[in-house]
Amino acid sequence: MALTRWTLLAINHRRATILLSLLTTFAGVALIIDRPKGTVLEWLAVPLLAIGGALFTYVVRPRKAADADHQNSLAGRLVRLVTLRGRLVPVFPALGIGMILADFAYNLLVSATPALQTEDTIVLLAAATLCAYGFVPARFAKERDFGLIFVLALNGILVLPLLAARVYYADFERSVDVYSWVALAPQTSEILSLLGVANTLHPVVGSTAPGLTFSPRNFVGPVTIVITTACSGIYSFGIFASAFVAFVLTEYEKPSPRVWAMLGFGLLTSYAANVFRMVVIVLVGYYTDTAQTDLQNMIVAHSYAGWAIFLTWIAAFWTILLKFFGPESIPATRVEYAITRNSCRICDRDLTPAILATRCECGASYHQTCLRSAGSCPRCGAAPPLVHQVN
What is the model's pTM? Predict the structure, then answer.
């Protein structure tokens, strides 16, 4: 009974459940791409992926009219426009294979590190998505387009800016530490100064990442932290920003100013959360570390608190977003317990043991004859074969 209640609660709050599943799933993805090695968090990736993926699959499982509804979404219209109403979909596998070959050629001929890096993994993920896109059944159109937009946004946020920076500086050895120099370390330094924490930002010999030097209150001598890719949070920012873009385009139908403002605000908030995360890590070291702790508090904050802060910030933002800036139209009906509604949802007459009754997957109950006459569930569009007889 408790499981049934939770199931119906998830169906009643579909968008909130989808966001919860996305948060859980991409927390697992973030741990795989940029996990804090040597900590307990390293072992949470697989459970988070399994739980989030299962919840997402259950909530968005295809309905009869899912494909038709998706065609009107921003994602559906965007994909139709880009693919020339589907005419370019047959060449997606060729594009995917081309991306794979281009990535390997880049590593062998241009890159200073031929080994596959995180950026290569992101490119190969997009290539695999393109190769598989045309083989996904049409009834999974929403999930298919969400995946496509997610991986393309991920490449647009994490890979293309890096390539552009390498071309601009004519330095193909330049790493993603350029993000720390441009969009993280200076902002972190300014905020710390405003909070009364004196610090300096400077290059570090033997590293392409910036160094931030400050003196903890209870520590002898200055401390320098190097804001490398591992602690910059760029991958977490890219994953959640891409998921947010894909979610908005998939779930919304009207390209209204509010939707675009929400997209921009969502990306800005994700970025702000990343800067806030770095500031908190430094503040932990500044206020709590002593000669006895030897900066262990700050290290713990980097391994645990930083990751938790980012997830908490994004979860809070999405919750507020759904509460006050949800879609223009929200279904007025809600799934209810059969025990609280003992009437057929089609004819509104009582359900009794004398007349065979049927309960749909969504929880709505009907007389079998009424449902056969209707042809499908009025609530979710499921056809009669997808419903279950009430014993």
Answer: 0.64
